[in-house]
Design goal:
The chain is α/β, with parallel strands linked by helices. The protein is about 45% helix and about 10% strand.
Length: about 230
């Protein structure tokens, strides 16, 4: 059956993000809104870690605004700007993404994103615009706009619908996490390609016996893999 669409994870797959000091990001936020920086940063980090634990255990989506509220922190734009400034180094798009997506689209394939994230969609869109790849996606779906994260079937269903695919067997999902990405995609009938780039935080790991359709180390390899899957 011919492949119609390729949908990607974001962090650790399309981005150069590998590992990030999560606590330091919250410390930057806290420094803008309180004098008791370490205590608030610890509370924010604890709330963030708890949110990701719920993702791991139940696939329940969350938003950063909820993390801040749970930690009892003020919701301040200057705090968010400091947080984003800290994260910027990890958000840059892999240089291989633009030529790879261009090749897929020239082959007639639709392209999309499905990411488990607490970040607002606007932040992600601004990153893609900054890096000149925003117009290379037919649709982007962020779990911060959904009820569920990966690997919940509804999250994958939302992404398939967004790119206009009715038969999951005609779509490929590309991601860096065996549980969230590979098992989730295979569970709804999609093909799955693993890009084993990231050092997944221990608290977010879920052991799973799943086998991707292919494993690649460079995104530039993907168009050739897609041809074989189709």
């Amino acid at each position: 059956m011919a492949i119609e669409a390729v949908i990607f994870d974001w962090g650790g797959t399309l981005s150069l993000w590998r590992t990030v000091d999560q606590l330091e990001g919250w410390r930057r936020y806290a420094a803008e809104v309180t004098e008791d920086v370490e205590s608030l940063a610890a509370a924010l980090h604890e709330a963030d870690t708890a949110a990701w634990a719920r993702v791991r255990d139940t696939s329940a989506a969350f938003r950063l605004s909820e993390v801040v509220a749970e930690a009892g922190a003020p919701h301040e734009e200057r705090g968010w700007q400091a947080f984003r400034d800290f994260w910027e180094h990890a958000t840059w798009t892999d240089p291989q993404v633009k030529p790879m997506l261009t090749e897929l689209r020239e082959a007639g394939l639709r392209t999309g994103v499905l990411s488990s994230t607490g970040w607002p969609a606007r932040w992600h869109e601004e990153i893609f615009e900054r890096d000149g790849v925003a117009d290379l996606f037919d649709a982007c779906v962020w779990s911060s706009d959904l009820e569920w994260t990966k690997p919940h079937p509804d999250a994958f269903g939302a992404a398939l619908e967004a790119v206009g695919v009715t038969d999951p067997a005609t779509a490929v999902y590309v991601g860096d996490r065996p549980y969230d990405d590979i098992s989730g995609a295979k569970g709804v009938g999609m093909h799955a390609v693993l890009v084993p780039h990231s050092d997944i935080p221990a608290a977010q790991r879920v052991p799973v016996d799943v086998h991707p359709d292919a494993v690649i180390n460079e995104l530039a390899e993907l168009p050739g893999v897609i041809q074989k899957l189709g």
